Amino acid sequence: MFRRTLALAAALTLAALPAFAWPDRPITIINPYATGSSTDAVARALAEAFTPMLGQNVVVTSRAGASGTVGMRALAGAAPDGHTLAYSPLVPLVVMPHLLRDTGLGPDAVAPVCNVTENILGIMVRADSPIQDLSGLVAEAKRRNLSYGSPGPNSAPFLGVHRMQVAAGGQYTHVPYRGDAASLTEVLAGRLDFAAIVVASGVPMARSGQTRLIATFSERRHPAFPDVKTAREQGIEALQPSYAALFATRGTPDAVLDRLETACREAMATPGFARIADNWGVVPDYRPRAELARRLAAEYEATGKVLRELGVQPE
C-alpha cells in the first residue's frame, strides 16, 4: 500500500512537470500581418524582452493572409503548450468570423494572454486641405460626395467612417487599398479627400508636415497629436476602438498563461518596448487576460451588430 501511494505521488508529480518546466524549447510568436508593419515591430519588441525573461529564444514568424485569419488559424491549430503564441489586432477574432464562413475563429478559439496596444483609428487629410476638423468634413460631405481610402471594406477604419456617417450624415465614396500607406499616398496626390487609417501609420507623414490628423475614433486622443480631439469630443458619436493583443493556443495550462501574462506586463515596462512604441506611434494599453477575454466578447458582439446593419453576410 505504501509503495502504491509513493508510485501514485511520483506519477502525479511527473504529470505536473511540463507546466512547471515551461518553456523547455524556443517560443514562436506568429505575426498574422505583413513583415515590417507596426504589428510585426511590436511582436519583435515583445520577443526581445521575453527571451531573457523566459530563458529561451523567442522568435517572430509572419503568417500573413486574409486579414490575419491565416496566422490566427495557425495558432488555433498549434499544440496547447505555450510554445506557440500570436500577437495580433482583434480583427481576425471579432470581425473576420462575421465575414467568412468556417474560419474556425472567434473569441473562444484561442487563449487570451494580455492586451498590449490600442491601435487608435482616425482620419487624415492633406496638410493644405481646407477641412480643419470633423464637423468641417461632414459639412463638406453634405455639399458633395467625398472620396476616402481605407484598408478595405469592413475594416476597422471603414467601420469608423460608417459610424460617423450614421451619426452625422454626409455622402462618401469608399476606395479600398492594401494597407494605410497606399491610402495616404493617394491623399497626398489629391486623388482622395481623406484617409481612414490606423493613426500610427500616418505619424511619419504628419510629423513631416505632409498630412494632418483631424479626429480619432477612440475614447482618447492620440498621444502623438494631443491637440486633435476625438470624434466624440467634436460632437459626433463615432467610437470605433481597435486593440492588439497576445494570444496562446486554447487549452494552454493556466500556469503557463499566468507566467506569460506576467512576462507581458514586465516586457511592456522595458525601455526597448517603450522605444518601439514611440517610434511606431502605437499606444501601450496593458490589460490582463481576464479583461481581454471580456473585451473580445464585447467587440465580437458589437462588430456583428454593425455588420448586420450594413447588410453584410458571411461568404
What does this 3D model show about the protein?
- This protein has 315 residues and is of the alpha/beta class.
- The chain folds into two domains: 2-118 and 242-309, D-Maltodextrin-Binding Protein, domain 2 (3-Layer(aba) Sandwich), CATH 3.40.190.150; 121-216, Periplasmic binding protein-like II (D-Maltodextrin-Binding Protein, domain 2, 3-Layer(aba) Sandwich), CATH 3.40.190.
- It contains twelve helices and eleven strands.
- Strands 2-1-3-10-4-11 form a six-stranded mixed sheet, with helices on both faces.
- Strand 1, helix 2 (38-54) and strand 2 form a beta-alpha-beta unit.
- Helix 2 crosses helix 10 and helix 2 packs antiparallel against helix 11 (271-280).
- The chain is globular, with a radius of gyration of 22 Å.
Question: Which properties best describe this structure?
Answer:
single chain, 315 residues, D-Maltodextrin-Binding Protein, domain 2, 2 domains, six-stranded mixed β-sheet, five-stranded mixed β-sheet, 12 helices, 11 strands
CATH superfamily of the largest domain: Bordetella uptake gene, domain 1
**Taking all residues together, what is the mean pLDDT?**
91
> How is the CATH topology of the largest domain named?
D-Maltodextrin-Binding Protein, domain 2
Number of helices: 12
* Spatial extent as radius of gyration: 22 Å
* Helix/sheet category: alpha/beta
Distance between the termini: 62 Å
β-sheet strand percentage: 15-25%
Outline the low-pLDDT stretches.
5-19
- What is the annotated CATH architecture of the largest domain? 3-Layer(aba) Sandwich
Helix content: 40-55%
User: What's the number of extended β-strand segments?
Assistant: 11
Which of globular, elongated, flat, extended, rod-shaped describes the shape? globular
SSE arrangement, N to C: HEHEHEHHEEHEHEHEHEEHHEH
**In which order are the strands of the major sheet placed?**
2-1-3-10-4-11
Q: How many domains make up the coordinates? A: 2
How would you classify the quaternary structure?
single chain
Strand count, sense and barrel status of the largest sheet are: 6 strands, mixed
What is the level 1 CATH name of the largest domain? Alpha Beta
